[in-house]
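Continuing the series of single-chain predictions for the mutant panel. This is the parent chain; the variants come on the following pages.
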Amino acid sequence: MELTVFLENIKKNQEEVVYFCCNHVLSKKFDIAKDNLDEITLKNLFINYESFTKSLNDSAGIIYKKYEAELDDVYKEICNLFNEDFDNAYLFNYRLTRVKNQEARQFLDIEDKDTQETVIQKFEDKINTILESKYYKENKEKLSENLIIPQKTLELIKSVAGMY
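Parent structure:
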């Protein structure tokens, strides 16, 4: 598919922010006026959550300020475009990476109690988001082991910080 045609379809059928993001991602890697990509390659370019967000890091301010949009909302729209569930393995792995290597000390070394509680709550929210996700629930048997250490770390942190 010609990238110009793909983007023209996005422009006609999606919100402006989705067009902006697709155009931005594609223009970083391709000559939009000349290049063609098959649908599978296009899909893989956009559905991989981590690479999608990295490609848009330099324009996050524009997305938030100009379009008043969240990257997750754009990601959902793009997944819909490719008939993919947004709550997928890519998103799960991205979220898991954000919680699996957290060390208790970094939470416990925070001296201000209010700040410490806020940071601990955010960590707990991230774990709960994973636990409540559709992808996790559908694959709980094979994925639950990945969350044992983050959950135990959270329990330890809350216990030592006196949050129970």
